[in-house]
Amino acid sequence: MRYSYYPGCTLKTKAKVYEDTTLATAKALGLEVTEIEEWQCCGALYPLNTDEIFPFLAPVRSLAQTKEAAHEKMMTLCAGCYNVFKRTNKAIREDGELRRKVNAYLEEEYMGDVDVVHYLEVLKNDLGFAALAEKVKKKLEGRKIAPYYGCLLLKPRDEMNFDDVENPTIIEDFLAAIGAEAVDYPYKTECCGSYLSMANEDVASTAVGRILKSAYNNKAEAFVVACPLCKYNLEEYQNTLQEATKDPNAKLPVYYFTELLAEALEV
């Protein structure tokens, strides 16, 4: 199986371990991943104003490169990048005027026909979790992990079509495949505060505090995430858990799902 790969900015800097463990595990699983040449930042946030074409140019350029490379699928990792590409692709496919303007500017003929996928979807739909389980060398038995989805993988529902918005299970199924126990808790799809951690720390810390306390009270020992910003926020505001529990040692480590996968595959 061959995929164009869009890393995004954060995976080359703060989230380098996310990229490294992805590429190592993909190779171990027989997945051929080719990084898109001269990719640009996707913009980080999906533009809501379709009258202005410039925010669409960078993501469409990468999608067109995938098409030109004869790859049917473009794989990404960051939940923010995934959200931007998935929604941009749908807009280009369905909005003829936007498609005409963007293609005219880029001198492309991209029609929105590349399939944008997240690495979790590759593991579930292309490889299959049953096949993944057979390749595991070290089952993570006894590990109680809280899946944290956040917003961007799942919403908006009609544009993302990633999983059930209210009760997603893809990360739980992934954890089962590598032998870990998924801890259910009420706040796994609630927003962590996103970029508000930069502008309004009180809002972000309150949001994260609810998530941390909920997982902790349901006996989780760690979090697993698919988003660099979610990981940052969950780690940054661990003090809210210590304040809520009155325990200065209370802490829930946060892992990318690929870190756990690398451990299970022993790569």
UniProtKB/TrEMBL annotation:
One function term, GO molecular function aspect: CoB--CoM heterodisulfide reductase activity
InterPro entries assigned: Cys_rich_dom, HdrB/HdrD_reductase
Domain Cysteine-rich per the UniProt entry, residue ranges: 4-86, 147-234
Keyword Oxidoreductase: yes
UniProt-listed Gene3D superfamilies: 1.20.1050.140
N-terminal signal peptide: none
EC number: 1.8.98.1
Keyword Secreted: no
Pfam name, any one: CCG
Keyword terms: Oxidoreductase
Protein name per the record: CoB--CoM heterodisulfide reductase
Species of provenance: Dethiobacter alkaliphilus AHT 1
